């Protein structure tokens, strides 16, 4: 998944929504508008369910999932 | 598999809706408005109706909705959106007309306009954000504020003696012959967001099919007004708001 | 429909004229003495002929906001009411002006304040010409004296409203609303097509269609520098209107030594008084403002250099007199004679007031 860190307001809702604990808010670093933005702390655990993006009020998360097409 | 191999257009399963403008919203972090805006932007594109959509945003936090969703908008006076929508819809019968109203707007100052637009069965969709508070003006009591809830104008908690009872106006609207679809939803979880999207889609379809008025109440949070974190607000909403405002369809014809 | 000569009430004429103009919508609420506008439209069922939408709203507030909604989409829409109802509409009128929307509002005035009376009055002059609602704005105010003008001002009001993108108002008194006269109804004009509307109103929020950018109709601007620019733009529009759209009619002013200024049907009563005065050798002229805003300041200013005194006759406690005094710039005494509460002066009373208030030696 990708997160637009500049658009993120650090509301934490994606962190709560993620079933596999992929996301965290930056503990110290802030974006240009002063928010502790979300980032993928544990990207390997992502299952591409898009729950984070679905609940994001600022539409700053996009999700990619590789579908095994059996090739 | 590398990150570059995953992040490719063909693998994208959730994208920022194209109808959302690049403007960063003025909403507080975690505000439900952003989620509902996103749903509307997705639906208007998916239903291929953006070019004939007229959105109506009256006074309230969402008065600036026109900055965020790339369709034609009319900003309305406080409470008057259903009247504005009535004319916009009747004079432009091929358009999709929807209002986006808060609880102060719809259930206080605009009660008459709301009830009568619904009663006439105007072919419009009313999206009603119920966060039990006046957000824009700084967190004052709304008709939907729960008993005991502290707001800027009920600093010791709302009491029935002083302020009357919380108003479940959507139940009232479901009684009217002009409404075809009345439902209460929320956007606090991914599953709830998907249900709300289905509900708004149905409302838009009803409007285009001229079936009458659809009302989608979205029980929402106002974490700034409630003085909680966004996550706490969602929990508090599920625990307290849903008791007075239970989710589900009230009318589906 | 071809041109047609009919006998009808002023209120009925408004309804006929609206249909024949090709208006897109009417939104109203019953109130005496103007209910015949909505009743006549309901009787004529224009939705079956021209496609004009006619709707009885739940309140005057809703009706004016329906006008706001229709006008926002570029449609030619109107409402009508009478004084207490027009007070309720002021919020919407301010929004229309601030959003630079064309619309037509008809006020068939009755006596106030409060619920007042259903009898005729001109006591809403201040409300109409000085703004009425909040903020710095003006409406174009047309004052009809005949049923024919009730008819003609519908088209004129709409045309001016669209030309300047600002609401126009027909400020009629209850007399011209209720009285019957011969009227020539104009031939039917077709309603604008969707293409014509989009060409005429590129600002309309009627759905993006093929347009690249979204249209937003709003009166809100949080940036003070931009909001001041908006206000300056409104004022520039008002300046253009004042420059180009002043309308008034003068009678017997060539040799006048005294001047009566009166608007609406009162001007017709004054004309009778003037004829009686002239029989007695008093040279009086009449100026009838047709546009109350923009006000015929220059015409009155010019006449104030010619006459010895000016009397305004109004169905109120003295409202237009203030504008006449400003226009006369203290050159001559300006007095007011008025009746209130639905009372209408007769020519003899007016003549007496003229002689007494302007100290005319006989």
Low-confidence stretches of chain C: none
In the CATH scheme, the class of the largest domain in chain C would be Alpha Beta
Overall body shape of chain A: elongated
Helix count of chain C equals 13
What is the global morphology of chain C? globular
Query: What amount of the residues of chain A lies in strands?
Result: 15-25%
Structure, briefly:
Chain A is an alpha+beta fold and 71 residues long. Chain A has helices at 13-17, 51-55; strands at 2-3, 23-25, 38-40, 61-64.
Question: What would you note in describing this structure?
Answer:
The complex is a heterotrimer of chains A (71), B (253) and C (362). Chain A has helices at 13-17, 51-55, and strands spanning 2-3, 23-25, 38-40, 61-64. Chain A is elongated and about 45 Å long. Chain A has one domain: Alpha-Beta Plaits (2-Layer Sandwich). Chain A is 14% helix and 17% strand. Chain B has 10 helices and 10 strands. The longest helix of chain B has 19 residues, at 190-208. With 253 residues, chain B is α/β, with parallel strands linked by helices. Chain B has a single domain, classed as Rossmann fold, CATH 3.40.50.970. Chain B has a 7-stranded mixed β-sheet, sandwiched between helices. With 362 residues, chain C is of the alpha/beta class. Chain C has 2 domains: 4-198, Thiamin diphosphate (ThDP)-binding fold, Pyr/PP domains (Rossmann fold, 3-Layer(aba) Sandwich), CATH 3.40.50; 248-357, Rossmann fold. Helices cover 41% and strands 20% of the residues of chain C. Chain C is built from 13 helices and 15 strands. Chain C has helices at 10-21, 36-44, 60-72, 83-98, 125-129, 147-164, 174-178, 194-200, 224-244, 265-279, 297-304, 320-328, 347-357, and strands at 4-9, 25-28, 53-56, 77-81, 103-109, 140-142, 167-173, 180-185, 216-217, 248-251, 258-261, 284-289, 291-293, 309-314, 334-338. In chain C, the strands form 3 sheets. A 7-stranded mixed β-sheet of chain C has the order 3-2-4-5-7-6-13, sandwiched between helices. A 5-stranded mixed β-sheet of chain C has the order 10-12-11-14-15, sandwiched between helices. Chain C has a two-stranded antiparallel sheet with strand order 1-8. In chain C, helix 1 (10-21) crosses helix 6, helix 3 packs parallel to helix 4 and helix 11 (297-304) packs across helix 12 (320-328). Chain C starts with a strand and ends in a 5-residue tail after the last helix. Classes of the chains: A alpha+beta (71), B alpha/beta (253), C alpha/beta (362). At the B-C interface, strand 2, strand 3, helix 3 and helix 5 of B face helix 3, helix 4 and strand 9 of C. Strand 4 (61-64) of chain A pairs antiparallel with strand 1 (12-14) of chain B, so a sheet runs across the interface.
């Amino acid at each position: 998944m990708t997160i637009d860190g500049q658009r993120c307001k650090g509301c934490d809702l994606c962190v709560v929504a993620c079933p596999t604990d992929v996301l965290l808010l930056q503990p110290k670093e802030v974006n240009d508008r002063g928010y502790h933005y979300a980032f993928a702390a544990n990207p390997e655990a992502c299952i591409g369910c898009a729950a984070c993006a679905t609940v994001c009020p600022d539409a700053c998360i996009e999700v990619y999932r590789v579908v095994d097409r059996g090739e | 598999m590398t990150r570059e191999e995953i992040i490719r257009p063909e693998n994208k399963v959730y994208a920022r809706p194209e109808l959302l403008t690049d403007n960063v919203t003025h909403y507080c972090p975690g505000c439900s408005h952003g989620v509902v805006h996103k749903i509307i932007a997705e639906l208007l594109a998916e239903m291929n109706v953006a070019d004939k959509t007229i959105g109506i945003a009256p006074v309230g936090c969402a008065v600036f909705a026109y900055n965020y969703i790339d369709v034609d908008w009319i900003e309305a006076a406080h409470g008057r959106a259903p009247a504005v929508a009535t004319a916009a819809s009747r004079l432009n019968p091929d358009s999709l007309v929807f209002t986006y109203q808060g609880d102060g707007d719809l259930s206080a100052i605009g009660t008459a306009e709301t009830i009568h637009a619904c009663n006439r069965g105007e072919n419009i969709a009313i999206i009603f954000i119920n966060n039990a508070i006046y957000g824009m003006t700084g967190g004052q009591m709304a008709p939907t504020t729960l008993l005991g809830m502290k707001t800027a104008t009920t600093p010791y908690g709302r009491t029935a003696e002083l302020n009357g009872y919380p108003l479940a106006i959507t139940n009232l609207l479901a009684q009217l012959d002009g409404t075809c679809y009345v439902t209460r939803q929320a956007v606090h979880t991914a599953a709830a967001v998907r249900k709300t999207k289905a509900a708004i889609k149905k409302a838009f379809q009803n409007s285009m099919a001229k079936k009458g008025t659809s009302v989608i109440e979205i029980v929402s949070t106002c974490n700034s007004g409630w003085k909680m974190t966004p996550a706490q607000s969602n929990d508090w909403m599920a625990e307290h708001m849903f008791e007075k405002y239970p989710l589900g369809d009230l009318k589906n014809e | 429909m071809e041109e047609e000569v009919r006998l009808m009430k002023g209120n009925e004429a408004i309804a006929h004229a609206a249909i024949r103009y090709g208006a897109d919508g009417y939104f109203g609420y019953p109130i005496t003495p103007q209910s015949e506008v909505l009743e006549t439209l309901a009787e004529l069922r224009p939705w079956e002929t021209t496609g004009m939408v006619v709707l009885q709203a739940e309140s005057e507030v809703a009706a004016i906001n329906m006008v706001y909604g229709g006008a926002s989409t570029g449609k030619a829409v109107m409402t009508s009411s009478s004084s207490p109802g027009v007070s309720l509409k002021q919020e919407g009128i301010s929004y229309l002006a601030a959003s630079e929307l064309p619309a037509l509002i008809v006020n068939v005035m009755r006596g106030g304040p409060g619920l007042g009376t259903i009898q005729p009055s001109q006591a809403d002059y201040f409300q109409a010409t000085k703004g009425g609602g909040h903020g710095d704005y003006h409406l174009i105010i047309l004052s009809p004296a005949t049923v024919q003008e009730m008819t003609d001002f519908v088209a004129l009001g709409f045309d001016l409203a669209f030309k300047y993108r600002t609401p126009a108002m027909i400020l009629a008194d209850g007399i011209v609303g209720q009285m019957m006269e011969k009227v020539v109804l104009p031939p039917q004009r077709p309603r604008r097509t969707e293409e014509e509307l989009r060409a005429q109103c590129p600002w309309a929020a009627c759905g993006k269609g093929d347009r690249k950018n979204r249209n937003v109709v709003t009166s809100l601007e949080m940036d003070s520098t931009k909001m001041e620019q908006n206000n300056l733009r409104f004022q520039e529009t008002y300046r253009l209107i004042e420059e180009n759209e002043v309308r008034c009619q003068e009678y017997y002013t060539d040799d006048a030594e005294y001047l009566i200024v009166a608007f609406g049907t009162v001007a017709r009563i004054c004309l009778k008084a003037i004829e009686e005065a002239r029989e007695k050798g008093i040279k009086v002229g009449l100026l009838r403002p047709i546009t109350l805003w923009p006000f015929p300041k220059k015409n009155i200013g010019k006449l104030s250099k010619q006459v010895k005194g000016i009397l305004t006759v109004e169905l109120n406690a003295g409202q237009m007199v203030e504008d006449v005094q400003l226009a006369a710039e203290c050159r001559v005494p300006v007095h007011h004679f008025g009746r209130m509460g639905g009372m209408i002066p007769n020519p003899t009373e007016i003549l007496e007031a003229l002689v007494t208030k302007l100290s005319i030696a006989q």
